[in-house]
Amino acid sequence: MEAPEKQEEIVSDRTGKLAGTVNWGTATVVGVFAGMLYGGSKAASESVSKDAEVMLKLGSTPDKREQYRLMRDAMEKRFITVARGSIIGGIRLGMFTAAFYGLQNLLAEKRGVIDVYNVVGAGSATASTFGLILPGSFRWRLRNAMVGSLLGAAICFPLGWLHLKLVAKANGGKLTTRNEEAKSGIAAAVERLEGNLEKRA
Length: 201
Fold this sequence. Notes:
7 helices; mainly alpha; elongated
């Protein structure tokens, strides 16, 4: 019975993460793939209108070689468009996801507490940063940053609250801070030591 407790203690010390923090790498990879899927499907739907033009050219061209060349060119252009949209979408959403979860984990680590304010702060900072990156004049970028900050906080507050409720439910109804985790580990070690001393006596 002592071996599993010791193993659980080692695993929790090795990870050093608060319960409820999101794995940054996994979230970033999911964001990249979701962005690739969205960007590729958006580019594919936009290129459908160009297919009608190709079909009109095919109907007006009696030469088979010319038809084949037109079809090949259209397929190459469509592939390049979808690939470009997929790559750009993956980079954009991946960067946003990486920044958001990185800031959220950083706030949780520095504050030592997991609460909704970590999510709100990360969402506000990430949205305002991406507002500054958008093209336009300096005044336009500042406006985008302010709107992004407000929208990020407004959207992330209910999402953070829901996230905390789900984490608390998964952990048996409570969220622990790092100090509480350390106390519970020390308390478990003391209980084991007391149990060993009682067995010897």
